[in-house]
Amino acid sequence: MKHAMNQKPDYEKELRKAGVRITRPRRIILDILTSTEDHPDAMKIFHRAIEIDDSISLSTVYRTMNLLEEMGAIHRHAFNGGPSRFEQAHGEHHDHLIDIETGDVIEFQSDKIEKLQEEIARSLGYEITHHRLELYCRKITPGE
Amino acid sequence: MKHAMNQKPDYEKELRKAGVRITRPRRIILDILTSTEDHPDAMKIFHRAIEIDDSISLSTVYRTMNLLEEMGAIHRHAFNGGPSRFEQAHGEHHDHLIDIETGDVIEFQSDKIEKLQEEIARSLGYEITHHRLELYCRKITPGE
DNA sequence: TTCTTTTTGCAAACGATTTGCATTTGCATT
DNA sequence: AATGCAAATGCAAATCGTTTGCAAAAAGAA
Ligand SMILES: [Mn+2]
Ligand SMILES: [Mn+2]
Ligand SMILES: [Zn+2]
Ligand SMILES: [Zn+2]
User: Fold this and answer.
1) What's B46's DSSP letter?
2) What pTM, to 2 d.p., does this model score?
């Protein structure tokens, strides 16, 4: 149950090391990603980006998200089956609780659940590469 | 960890009760859904359907899946963010382990995890309406 | 059977994402 | 600083899964 107070990793260095060029669009998109607490989709990232440089295109946003995902620098989510939403990968692993009324996304972490998942996979002859746990919830109203 | 050996529920009765007409396409689609162990997507259901009646259209498959989902007769999954895949809702709740190499889907159930999920939601002031737990795994190769 | 309403098939529209291609850019090299 | 080339961009068109409008067909109540 931890809100990752992430000290920014040096993505530019990571990109360079991966033999990838540092371009203006990429710098801007990385800035957006590292300076937000939420889980924006491509369109939202695009809108934030053109506020800084209105020549950036939506395809570049998509291409950059794919690149960063392949590098493991971001995670992709598809809450509800909606459009992909992203967040930087740094900080510790967590899962998500989605308020189905407001759309709010709350992050949480449970070592116990993580352990149980491992056990289950193991008992079936598998090892987990990644997983997804989403709780779709409604706020508890005490007087009801 | 249970493979639901589901005795077929009477969907036709359920549909009638909901004031919905029993049509040939719907009967065929329901048959496909109740007689399969896997998690087919709309296209796969469509192909199985036209083998029985080649006049069925893909839109009818989609419309029927939406109808059945609203009635709570089926569940919809979006593994990996791919196309929607379906399974009948009868039988007990379970989650899914996906073999990322073969695409196989294995069902499992853990009361402990379910309980922990409730606790977490509760502690954040929420109650769960539904959830999704997917383990993406690779088969364990003992000699490696 | 007739009548009314729902459902269908088809084709066109849709939203999210990807792609082809000509142009621009990053950056390693002079 | 100027050059050269590969990599990345913007744009428009294509793609994929899914939904929709509409006229024709089928369900089921009377
Ligand atoms: Mn987790
Ligand atoms: Mn579960
Ligand atoms: Zn998150
Ligand atoms: Zn299942």
Assistant:
1) H
2) 0.89
Partners of residue B74 on adjacent β-strands: B88
A112 within 8 A of B116, measured Cβ to Cβ: yes
- Under an 8 A CB cutoff, do B137 and A123 touch? no
* List of residues 6+ apart from B14 with CB closer than 8 A: B71, B73
CB within 8 A of A110, min separation 6: which ones? A1, A95, B116, B120
A67 touches strand C (CB under 7 A): no
Euclidean distance between CA atoms B40 and B48, whole angstroms: 10
Q: How far apart are the first and last CA of chain A?
A: 27
CA B55 to C1' D20, whole Å: 20
Which of A97, A100, A130 shows the shortest C-beta gap to B136?
Answer: A130
Distance, first Cα to last Cα, chain B: 27
Give tens-digit pLDDT for A41-85.
999 999 999 999 999 999 999 999 999 999 999 999 999 989 999
One DSSP character per residue, A30-75 reads HHHHHT-SS--BHHHHHHHHHHH-TT--HHHHHHHHHHHHHHTSEE
Residue B52: its H or E element: helix B42-52
Residue in this structure with the two tokens 């987990």, named with its chain if needed:
A128
Q: Look at the alpha carbons of B71, B103, B4, A131 in this order and tell me if their dihedral is positive or negative.
A: negative
Closest CA to B83 of B103, B68, B101, B97: B103
Helix axes B42-52, B24-34, angle to 10 degrees: 120
